[in-house]
Design goal:
Layout (H helix, E strand, L loop, with lengths): L1 H53 L4 E5 L4 E4 L6 E5 L2 E9 L4 E3 L1 E3 L5 E4 L8 E9 L5 E10 L5 E2 L1 E4 L5 E2 L5 E5 L6 H6 L1 E5 L6 E6 L2 E5 L9 E7 L4 E3 L2 E3 L2 E8 L3 E6 L4 E6 L2 E9 L10 E4 L2 E9 L15 E10 L6 E5 L17 E4 L10 H8 L5 E5 L19 H6 L4
Parallel strand pairs: 2-9, 10-19, 12-20, 21-29, 27-28
Antiparallel strand pairs: 1-3, 3-7, 4-5, 4-8, 6-7, 8-9, 11-13, 13-16, 14-17, 15-16, 17-20, 18-19, 21-22, 22-23, 23-28, 24-29, 25-26, 26-27
Pfam families: Big_10 (PF17964), YkuD (PF03734)
Pathway: Glycan biosynthesis; Cell wall biogenesis; peptidoglycan biosynthesis
Protein name: L,D-TPase catalytic domain-containing protein
Length: 418
């Protein structure tokens, strides 16, 4: 029994000794391994230092975030860099196949688009910058602009930079119905160098016009600012437009068509310029009375009676003339003042024969400047006023064309939401 216990003790001691030897052996071998590990650490640090040396310190920031949706189309896109300068910024809309021009700041640290973006469009932005050591930094982003269903803009008349007649209103047609009319109207600023008071009038939920009490004074400059970006037009529908434009009022020209005498007297700057023989609407289809503003001009255009409700028993247009010369629109419903080559010369000044338009003697091809139609076309501006009197028809309604002058000033002001 003693021998057995003694052998077990020796065995345990031997095992313990082997463990000590093993530990000593591991420790001795670890000296070489530590040396290798130190070399690896030093090499790793050197690699990191080399990588840091090649890394640009320029930090690019892009607004909006990558993959953003519902982005505004005016000032919601911008690129900036810290600790460096911007070398290249490219903004593209692949589905439109176009690159968007942008403006780089003088110190080359910021960039933004020069133009309003398109709605419901995916844009891709690529940026390259460099730090003071010339080391490059790159960043990309893509985003999608707000959808038309959740936004509104206003299409405006007249065009920016245009010269117009004294009757031209500022007319805004919105692509969504506007419920918050006061807020939207307050976002529009219209000023005139003449100092005339200008008031807005809502014809319906999508049209807002501005005009003074009487015609613009000749030579007036009118400046318009549309600050709709962020304005709630209706629940869930926000404005995305931020636009300024201006136009100049030219000389004053007001022409009066007398449907009874079949003459038109053209007055410029208060002085008679010319009297022209005309042919107005027949007794069956008379011309509207009232003050009408020239809103479009066409050297030649097609006129098809079917498009304005003049059809025969077979549903065909009562007339279809492919090349009406020197046509100028006076109403949305189809009233024009235009040249007429298909009627005999004797018609003008003696008989009213049209379907409601005002006709002037002219030739086919619109190539004779001596004809009354050509003369009046050349002497007219968009925004000039044509007044029709002594016609058996009613007065044209103010919303039919740019013809708000057929409303009293009190009624006009009553249509303002502010």
């Amino acid at each position: 029994m003693v021998d057995v216990m003694r052998r077990r003790g020796l065995t345990a001691a031997a095992a313990l000794l082997c463990g000590v030897l093993a530990l000593t052996s591991c420790g001795g071998g670890g000296g070489d391994d530590d040396a290798d590990g130190g070399e690896q650490t030093e090499q790793s640090d050197a690699d990191q230092a080399a990588e840091d040396a090649d890394t640009s310190s320029a930090v690019i920031s892009i607004t909006p975030d990558d993959a953003a949706e519902g982005v505004g189309i005016n000032d919601d896109v911008a690129v900036r860099v810290e600790e460096g300068t911007l070398d290249e910024v490219v903004l593209t809309a692949p589905e439109l196949g176009a690159e968007v021009a942008g403006t780089l700041s003088e110190d080359q640290t910021s960039w933004q688009p020069e133009e309003q973006l398109e709605r419901a469009t995916r844009y891709e932005l690529t940026v390259r910058a460099s730090d003071s050591e010339g080391r490059a930094a790159h960043q990309t982003a893509a985003f999608t602009t707000v959808s038309p269903e959740n936004s509104f803009i206003g299409y405006f008349t007249p065009e920016d930079g245009s010269e117009v007649g004294v009757g031209m209103p500022v007319s805004l047609n919105f692509d969504q119905e506007i419920a918050n009319q006061a807020e939207v109207q307050q976002a529009v600023t219209v000023t005139a160098s003449s100092g005339q008071e200008i008031v807005g009038h809502w014809f319906d939920a999508t049209r807002l016009d501005f005009r003074p009490e009487s015609y613009w004074e000749a030579g007036t400059q009118v400046d318009v600012s549309l600050d709709f970006d962020g304005v709630e037009g209706s629940p869930g529908i926000t404005g995305v437009q931020d636009r300024d434009f201006s136009f100049t009022v030219g000389r004053s020209q007001v022409s009066t068509v007398d449907a009874e005498s079949k003459e038109m007297k053209v007055v410029r700057d208060g002085e008679p310029l010319r009297t022209v023989k005309i042919s107005a609407g027949s007794d069956e289809t008379p011309t509207y009375n009232g003050q009408m503003v020239i809103s479009e001009k066409y050297e030649e255009t097609r006129m098809d009676g079917a498009t304005v409700g003049f059809t025969d028993d077979d549903g065909e247009g009562e007339y279809d003339i492919p090349d009406v010369p020197h046509a100028m629109r006076l109403s949305t419903s189809g009233t024009f003042i235009h040249g007429n080559y298909w009627a005999p010369d004797s018609t003008f000044g003696s008989t009213n024969t049209s379907h409601g338009c005002v006709g002037l003697n002219d030739v086919q091809g619109a190539d004779d400047p001596d004809q009354d139609g050509a003369w009046f076309f050349d002497e007219s501006l968009l925004g000039d006023v044509v007044i029709v009197v002594n016609s058996p028809d009613e007065t044209i309604t103010p919303e039919n064309g740019l013809n708000g002058w057929n409303m009293s000033w009190d009624d006009w002001v009553a249509g303002s939401a502010v």
